Amino acid sequence: MKSNLILPTGKISQIRGKCISLIGNDIDTDRIIPARFLKCVNFDSLGKFVFEDDRKTLKGMHPLDLEENKDASILIVNSNFGCGSSREHAPQALMRWGIKGIIGESFAEIFYSNCIAIGIPCFTLSKKSIQVLQKKNNNKILFLEIDLKNSIAKSKNLILDLGIKESTKKMFLSGDWDATSNLLKNSSLVEKKLKELPYIRFNAES
Amino acid sequence: MSQDTLFDKVWDLHKVSSLPGGSDQIFIGLHLIHEVTSPQAFGALKDKNLKVKFPNRTVATVDHIVPTDNQSRPFKDNLAEQMIETLEKNCLQHKIRFFNIGSGNQGIVHVVAPELGLTQPGMTIACGDSHTSTHGAFGSIAFGIGTSQVRDVLATQTIAMNKLKVRQIWCENKLSHGVYAKDLILNIINKLGVKAGVGFAYEFAGPAIKALSMEERMTICNMSIEGGARCGYINPDEKTFNYIRNKLCAPKNESWDKALLWWKSLKSDKNSIYDDVIKLDASKIEPTVTWGITPGQSVSVNQQIPLLEELSQNDQLIAKEAYEYMGFNPGQSIKDTSVDVCFIGSCTNGRISDLRVAAAILKDKKISKKVKAFVVPGSEKVATEAKQEGLDKIFIDSGFQWREPGCSMCLAMNSDKLIGNQVSASSSNRNFKGRQGSPNGRTLLMSPAMVAAAAIEGKVSDVREFIDK
Ligand code: SF4
Predict the structure, then answer these.
(1) Per-residue model confidence as pLDDT tens digits over B377-396
(2) Are residues A132 and A183 in the same domain?
């Protein structure tokens, strides 16, 4: 966990940093942040508990505990990462540990939208390329430079085409990933919609 | 792209605008909140100096952290007490309806909203909880959201979301005797996989679905998310309308007639287009038990835990992890697996019909001495009804503990937890590593009837041997 943590704001067009690999499919949010740490009224202290039970089991040998990974910021994962509970505590804990971007074969849907909502871009990559990255990262330091505009990740003698939805990419490049301000703009349309919906009327009358 | 399905119709009806990023702005008809995923959202509102836009479109209850043994205040657990106090304060300040403990209507949010008649066809429903998909059983489009989106719904009554694709899951024939909705959904997840639903809404349809009661339909939709689908739904019919009729918050009198007229018009058209259709034969399904660490890793009670080579390449990695974590050998029978704890409850199977089925099996029987068993009703209403029927007594006489309503050992945020590597037979929805409160605790998911049978024998058993043919 970084003491000088800066949370993402505004436009995000580039992420540079050291990679850290977590190997395994279907890693669920209960594992990312066990339920007992959900007893909190803010997210501030979650960083140190990320993957708490997995880390305890591995007694210091978990990738998150290895000295060389301490300042990593790009997480490399396999498929269906973040499945299970909708808890935003999971990406919040990863972010507060120091993760700024995630590259994976696939992501669970709620986890993915939670990441976007807090400013962590998630990219997809083929199974094979993920394995190549994770292999390279195995026992070795791997730096990546992610260029959002061109959807590529670069390192020494490696260029990878990353998958990201065009709409999501636009949101990060323009700084509009924090949805609230856009949603607030259409206040009059929302009020109109409220009046149009049949069930609002017949529920109000009863 | 799907066309003219119920999902398309409800989505289009609630679409407010197309957002610059390419997603849609969707109006949320009913917003449900609980103590765990809302405090940070209220905090963010305060930081941004925003108000709750339509306070009467949000309803709150408390479920995840509540103790189920002693609910007197303040709670023994300071952190839990702090969370319920925060919710109380936020609801009071923002004028949000709150069904607190003792109100007679508190309980697991996905049990409470349907039984109050809040959940209705044609609505969009969101809640900071992945099992919000439950409400789709009524023909609403309901999905879980993260805390940032809870903030957005509070502030704007809308969220930004990309439209989902629609997969129809057509279930032929009927479930056979001793086989329940839980078995059906576990089989669907096993067949399609835990990530097949990503990007999809699941429409459950066909004679087998039509034959299910509303509570069974909720069990099915509840676990859509375990198959990766953020939302699952069933086209509404007479059963749906009859369930809602006369509920506390249901439309009454003339409003009821208007509602009914509208609800009847809500369904997928005969020739609607789906992005995908899957068919399965419900009559072939048998009582089912999970053996692994995802809800997709299940077998019929009389089958063996699959060998590695019987699984697809993609499933092998997680299977290896599961054998090791669960302490099972590939090829071993799941039947007769010894269990330490039996849990009946949760938003999947903590409703009155679940308790009735389990009680019928436990009547005049004693559970195994080595098993710790407890039943946690899904809501205060379920508890009251069960007591009126004398179910609590049947449970207690058999050796079960009878508890107060809440989520309890479904996620173990209160003091109900597995210890060490105990094995639980659980009617809940997730068997993830550590889910039930012990980092090496092991969970076998099954129907409440199967949990009752396991409690009697102290091991995984075929419930069909306990019920009249
Ligand atoms: S019962 Fe379990 S799955 Fe349902 S809302 Fe509570 S914790 Fe979530």
Answers:
(1) 999 999 999 999 999 999 99
(2) no
For residue B69, what is the DSSP state? S
Q: A98 with A112, same domain?
A: yes
The answer, for B421 touching chain A at a CB cutoff of 8 Å, is: no
Mutate to test the pocket of ligand 1, among B428, B443, B445 (most ligand atoms within 8 A of CB): B428
Q: What is the pTM of this model?
A: 0.95
For residue B108, give the 3-state DSSP assignment: coil
Chain B residues whose CB is inside 8 A of the A89 CB are 147
Q: Based on the fold, state whether residues A199 and A114 are members of the same structural domain.
A: no
pLDDT of B449 above 50: yes
- Residue A31: closest CA among chain B residues belongs to which residue? B433
Flag whether pLDDT at B18 surpasses 70. yes
Task: State the alpha helices, DSSP H only, in chain A.
Answer: 29-32, 52-58, 89-97, 109-118, 127-137, 166-174, 180-185, 187-196, 198-205
Q: Do B22 and A165 touch (CB under 8 A)?
A: yes
Secondary element (H or E) of residue B238:
helix B238-244
The two tokens of residue B335 are 């039947």
- Give all domains of chain B, ordered by start, each with its CATH number: 6-264 (3.30.499.10), 288-464 (3.30.499.10)
Say if A116 falls within a structural domain: yes
What CATH number corresponds to the domain at position A37? 3.20.19.10
- Pocket-testing residue among B62, B417, B429, ligand 1, by greatest number of atoms within 8 A of Cβ: B429
> Which atom of ligand 1 is nearest the CA belonging to B428?
2
ipTM for this prediction: 0.91
CB contact at 8 A, B201 and B230: yes
The answer to the question of residue A51 being in a domain is yes
My answer on whether A203 and A137 are in the same domain is no
Q: Do A165 and A70 lie in a common domain?
A: yes
SS3 B427: coil
- What contacts B417, CB < 8 A, 6 or more positions away? B409, B436, B437, B438, B441
Q: What percent of chain B has pLDDT over 70?
A: 100
**What's the whole-number average pLDDT of chain B?**
97
Which 277-296 residues of chain B touch chain A by CB within 8 A? 294
Range of the domain at A192: 178-206
* Residue B142, pLDDT above cutoff 80: yes
Residues of A in contact with B435 (CB under 8 A): 30, 35
**CB within 8 Å of B104: residues ≥ 6 apart:** B380, B381, B384
Partner-chain contact A24 B318, CB within 8 Å: yes
Nearest CA to ligand 1 atom 6: B407
Same domain for A150 and A64: yes
The residue whose CB lies within 8 Å of the most ligand 1 atoms, and thus the one to mutate among B38, B131, B344, B379, is B131
Nearest CA to ligand 1 atom 4: B347
Tell me if A38 is assigned to some domain. yes
pLDDT in tens, B157-173: 999 999 999 999 999 99
> Residue A206 has what pLDDT?
47
Residue A139: predicted pLDDT: 76
**Number of folded domains that form chain A:** 2
Instruction: Give percent of chain B with pLDDT exceeding 90.
Output: 98
Answer with the residue of higher pLDDT: B22 or B332.
B332
Q: What's the rounded Cα separation, in Å, for the pair B448 and B287?
A: 11
| C-alpha of residue B146 to centroid of ligand 1, in Å | 15
Please give the distance, rounded to the nearest whole angstrom, from the Cα atom of residue B411 to the centre of ligand 1. 7
Q: Mean pLDDT of successive 10-residue segments in chain A (206 residues)?
A: 72 96 96 94 93 94 94 97 95 97 96 95 97 89 96 92 92 88 94 96 74
